[in-house]
Amino acid sequence: MPSLQFPLRDTPAEAPALRAELRAFLAEAGRDWPPMVPAYSWMGFDREFSREVGKRGWIGMTWPKAYGGGERTALERYVVLEEMLAVGAPVGAHWIGDRQSGPLILRLGTEEQRREFLPRIVRGELAFAIGLSEPDSGSDLASLRTRAEKVPGGWKVNGRKVWTSSAHRCDFMIALLRTAPAPDPKAKHQGLSQFLVDLRSSGLSIRPILDLVGQDGFNEITFDDVFVPDSMLVGQEGNGWEQATAELAFERAGPERYLSSLPLLVEALDDLRAEPAAPEAVGRLLARAATLRQMSFSVAGMLQEGHTPAREAALVKDAGNDFEQALPETIRGLVDPARTPPQVLEMLGLMTMVARSYSLRGGTREILRGIIARQLGLR
Amino acid sequence: MRDILVEQVDRLLASRSEPATLRAAESGTWPEALWDEAEALGLPLALVPEQQGGVGLGWGDAVALWQAMGRHAAPIPLGESMAAAALLAGAGITPPTGFIGLGLPGEPVAWGRRAGHLVLAPGGEVTLHAPADWQQGRGLIAREPADRPVLAAPLAEGQLPAAYGPDAALLAGALLNAARIAGALEAVLDMTVDYANTRKQFGRAIGGFQAVQQLLARCAGEVAAAGVAVANAGRAADRHGLGGAEFEIAAAKVVTGEAGGTGAEIVHQVHAAIGFTDEHPLHLFTRRIWGWRDGAGPERLWARRIGDAALARGGDRLWADLTSRDEDAIA
Fold first, then answer.
1. Which of A329, B139, B261, B302 is the most exposed place for a label (fewest CB within 10 A)?
2. Cα–Cα dist B93/B201, whole Å
């Protein structure tokens, strides 16, 4: 029963200069962001912002130059991510492509797919959605039923995907689809494949779903005889589960799993000075933030070395979600509404609502803890 | 070097830090054999530079060793003695041999009655004492001997360099207690997973129930956070000195204190009644975790230090301060 190890990493030597560039850029770009922007953070979608980020070489930073990448380290990339998140930048239009779709195409895609997609992701021009959940398949993902049937020259897709963030604004989706029936109910992880699906395909309709804040953040996508060409299969037919699971290590490993609500602490801090309970409460939050930052950075180091730290990422995401959900509640317990500026109260109110999504998206708390429990050797 | 020493200490404590020894220590019996073997390995002077007769280990190494001691709930004040010797050496005083007690503001000294010497370091002024008499007591929760010295004029005095900060003894004590909690948490998590996989109810091991799995997964998260927090504090102390690592040490004490509370709660809940008995060894660890949470300042005190500094600096500096701590040394 080996417990999970999180060896400390040193920050890359390039970090201070990189941070200075990022901070100058973000101070300018974020000058007029209303509280709604940091409240949604990486779920916010702003193509113009993403193109500016792309111009500066901050998307696909670790990818080969042949595909437009920067051939920089995963730790440098981490520095860029955490600087973006610390101010709650609206990175959603490039976040998924940079974090998981691009790496997947790079790892398992055909040469043609790499040349077709990666340079456009790098430029911040191509936005990706994640096609995993379905109306009847949430935590039990492998039970998904949207199926792709073999037809001449490609596949015919029928079914529904749901909770797909920003799909109505995205260009492509990487969808996990059933290409063969499961041989038996216990082997439902077999027969799944991943496809690049053009969201403007004929037969594909996207219905925005309002979230509890009233924003049109996510969607239901219906496939009605949607044709997907053979060239859009990613990796190996039937190997989709393994591929998607490896992708989850990327999806769960990043600083977005503990920093989502940090901008509220930054925004509220100066107005907490007169509150006697603030020093202790703020100190506890910062102690956690500093520790989670090292844990998250440690996982980035594992990715840099080519490992797939799926379990480590699950643990850091779970611990990080606890922190980012506790933060708005802690601030709420400290602020005096009568003496607090309206923009702080607005961000607090929005994050109180948005925070519910933290421990749901990318794997619920209960699923993550199940993964950790299996790692501990509990059966 | 670090790994070899940690392995040696783990091996030594596996054979010498048995429940019987722990129980005897709680009744005031000094674990003579254990101390002698630790001394034979050179551990009390491990943090003293080689030119001053020690092994020359750093604070990061110390954290790893103290974690190992926590894993075995080591019933000797070896960590305190290592820290005391380090402070003496830092102030230019050659550390004496034998057990040296570490004096923290307002706290009794662990095993003071067995200490040949005592180190105090208020305001960075280190004094070496040889108390003739001790007012004996013991910790309410950890039950280890905890004595108050009757002080006379010091045998030696010295000044710590500025990098140690104004309260180096408290910082060293906090780092020690945090590291021990992190280690003890690893041990109780292991014990509890084993128990959950063997204890059967409703015809199956209780570790198969999701309710139990979810609790232990949460515990594993806290154990991991505690380990990272203390490693980070040790690294910061090696880079910036104890005083320069105040933030990381404070953060480690806060995180291990919280993790200790949550972790102990969970392991007791899973062990249920048997873990609440005197006979079961679980409390030999959890009582120490609770005791170490309070030693060298509870979470509250350290959290306030962090919070006061952050509030004084303001929101605009918060993120930059957090990130620059790792990068000053490099930039």
1. A329
2. 60
DSSP state of A187: G
Span B85-104, pLDDT tens digits: 999 999 999 999 999 999 99
Q: Are B316 and A13 an interchain contact pair (Cβ–Cβ within 8 Å)? A: no
Whether chain A has a CB inside 8 Å of the CB on B217: the answer is yes
Q: What is the CATH number of the domain that holds A204?
A: 2.40.110.10
Q: Do B318 and A265 touch (CB under 8 A)?
A: yes
Cβ pair A18, A80 in contact under 8 A = yes
Work out the minimum CA distance from B135 to partner chain A, whole angstroms.
34
Q: Provide the shortest C-alpha distance from residue B245 to chain A (in Å).
A: 13
Verify that A152 and A163 share a domain, yes or no.
Answer: yes
The answer to whether position A89 is within a domain reads: yes
Contact A291 B189 (CB under 8 A): no
Domain boundary among B164, B185, B207: B164
d(CA B102, CA B82): 9
Q: Which of B59, B213, B230 to mutate to test the interface with A (most CBs of A within 10 A)?
A: B213
Contact B217 A291 (CB under 8 A): no
Q: What is the pLDDT of residue B252?
A: 98
Would you put residue A38 in left (φ > 0), alpha (ψ -120 to 50) or beta? Answer: alpha
pLDDT tens-digit map of A302-319 = 988 988 898 999 999 999
A249: distance to nearest CA of chain B, Å?
17
Boundary (domain end) residue, out of B164, B188, B215: B164
**B residues 72-111 closer than 8 Å to A (CB):** none
Which among B229, B231, B304 is the nearest to A279, CB-wise? B304
Residues of B in contact with A282 (CB under 8 A): 303, 306-307, 310-311
Contacting residues of A for B306, CB less than 8 Å apart: 279, 282-283, 286-287
Average pLDDT over residues A178-191: 92
State the helix-helix crossing angle for B299-313 and B246-271, rounded to 10 degrees. 140
Q: Which helix (H) or strand (E) holds B80?
A: helix B78-90
B214 — contact with chain A (CB < 8 Å)? yes
Query: What is the identity of the amino acid at A210?
Result: L
CB contact under 8 A, B307 and A368: no
Instruction: Report the number of distinct structural domains present in chain A.
Output: 3
**How does DSSP assign A20-41, residue by residue?**
HHHHHHHHHHTTT--THHHHHG
Indicate whether A271 and A352 sit together in one domain. Answer: yes
Question: Within this chain, do residues B106 and B223 fall inside the same structural domain, yes or no?
Answer: no
For chain A, the C-alpha Rg in angstroms (whole number) is: 21
Order of strands across the sheet that contains B100-102: B100-102, B117-120, B125-129, B156-159
Quick check: B193 and A293 CB within 8 A? no
Contacts of A68 (CB under 8 A, 6+ apart): A60, A118, A119, A122, A123
ipTM tops the 0.95 cut: yes
For the domain that residue A67 is a member of, what is the CATH number?
A: 1.10.540.10
Contact A27, A151 (CB under 8 A): no
Residue-wise over B237-257: b if at least 16 C-beta within 10 A, else e? bbbbbbbbbbbbbbbbbbbbb
- The two counts, helices (H) then strands (E), for chain A are 13, 8
Q: Under an 8 A CB cutoff, do A291 and B314 touch?
A: no
Residues ≥6 apart with Cβ < 8 Å to A347:
A35, A38, A39, A263, A264, A267, A268
User: Which of A8, A267, A370 faces B213 most closely, judged by CB atoms?
Assistant: A370
Reply yes or no on whether the pLDDT at B331 is more than 50. no
Q: Tell me the percentage of chain B whose pLDDT exceeds 70.
A: 99
CA distance A369 to chain B (A): 5
Query: Please, what is the Cα angle at B218 between B217 and B220, to 5 degrees?
Result: 65
Domain identity same for A260 and A360: yes
